[in-house]
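Entry, Tuesday afternoon. Goal for today is a structural model of the target with pyridoxal-5'-phosphate bound, before we commit to ordering more compound. Inputs were pasted exactly as handed over by J.K., no edits. I checked the ligand SMILES twice against the vendor sheet because last time a stereocentre got dropped in transcription.
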Amino acid sequence: MTAVKGKTEQSGIHKTPGKAATAKAPKVFLCETKPCVWSIRDDTNTHGGLFQSKLDAYRFVRSEFPARTKVIHIPSTPISRDSGSFSTRSELSRNAVATRQCHRIQRDQTTRRSAMKNSQKTTSRPQTDIFDRKESSVQSYARNFPLLCRQAKGAVIWDNDGRKYLDFLAGAGSLNYGHNNPVLKDALIDYISSDGITHSLDLHTCAKEKFLQAFNDAILEPQQLDYKVQFTGPTGTNAVEAAIKIARKVTGRSTVISFTNGFHGCSLGSLALTGNSHFRNASGVALQGAVAMPYDKYLGPETDTLDYMETMLNDPASGLDHPAAVIVETVQGEGGLNAASMEWLRRLQTICSKNQILLIVDDIQAGCGRTGDFFSFTAAGIQPDMVTLSKSISGFGLPMAVVLMKPEHDQWKPGEHNGTFRGNNHAFVTATAALDHYWRTEDFTKSIAGKSQLLESRLQKISNLYPHEVVDIRGRGMMRGIRCRNPEQAAAITAQAFRDGAIFERAGSHDEVIKFLMPLTIEPAQLNEGLDILQRAFHTVIDAKPCAKQDNPSRKRKSTGSAAKSKTINHPARLELI
Ligand SMILES: Cc1ncc(COP(=O)(O)O)c(C=O)c1O
């Protein structure tokens, strides 16, 4: 710290009140030189110090530089593990390294670089067994991906050894704008630095006001959607519980129709609507108030499953109590990336309105741009009575959930559905920044469409290469899946991809679908890099398996003319086909 202070004196930025009154406001330039390394330079462009967080850098400027100092953000340098070294340090900044912050950063970088060089190291395990000893056995993702996460930026996570992982899971769809998105992060840091309110129950706050205004202006009004916004408890299941509760209150009925393979959360009301027995069996009580109907194509491509539902509804002796609501995912995320057709969704809405049943679209995973538009139902041209949103609504991975409902359904009495954490102001700030930055123009939608096409063509190629192992490609937009014939093979492929540095989750009744839920902001090169890793994992698991040599048709086809090559090449010849 002292060395940096010395620097400020040399560079002419003094705390001299008399001079300060007349002189031009001093400037300090702030830049993220590499992930989680912030540098300050004064206006003579002398390197002035390195910090592990932007907030630390701010604090330093505020405590060491004159109050009038303007902090100017300059664009980050590209992210690269090897860039941003300290070689360009001035003498002063070399001194600055002696300060506590800089020293710590440099040591971390050194550890990281040496870890990178260790090519033998394929996976990083936590150095401590505290997780085994102390964390509940309910943990799930951590079992498939045993890494000790340390830092993340965009579509990349770094573990504690500095190993890089491409993140095709993105917080199960909570990080549509990527990890630590700089636009959202800056907004949040500014808000916190200015002592913006953090907790306010459901009191009106400036942050909430800005969010509501931005949501109305950027999303609702342009689509002529007239919805009231209910802030529920902060997770997706809270929004689902609130939606079915108000639907029951409004209609005076209790049954809610859900669909096979649907997932709506793990609290009891949502669990009753969820298909998977793995989750349902843990409920401990009877799950009530829900009836499951077959989702689109559940009975094969020829059968319109809504015929069945409509027949049940029209027959007073069918045993189906007249429902309050139907809840549906337009693309089933956890259920295996099953995408309902536009015709099916439109007919579902028609059946609901004909029978005075409220239609709830659960857009918790498929919303916020995941399928292309902000809402996943826009493409079908429907207007649900209610919509649930969570996951990426805050955009920064901060907990936040809402129910959107047509005004006539907002029949709550004050405080009737209460909760301490209804409205997270930090989430409002990042959500507003995301809306302002990504949803005021068509650019983001276009970029999602471009990457969706790239994803589709790459997945199609993998499917063509492995026609016997891959059943089909499924999903919509940047919410896609490869359904494998053999769940164990799917597990082996994602495990291999993880060892090679990419995180892919699985979904579906038997976890047989490899899921693609990467940040929407992923660079096309990163998208390709991740899919290269996956394709190599297919090769390693399927082609390289000795017992599959004789009878695996896809291997035979691929081997044609390149047998010698495939014996010697560590990473697969199939990559040549990309
Ligand atoms: C469609 C859908 N609804 C509800 C939920 C539950 O959200 P949460 O896990 O935040 O309670 C999820 C979670 O994956 C989801 O995908």
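Residues 1-22, 77-124, 547-578 have pLDDT under 50 and may be disordered.
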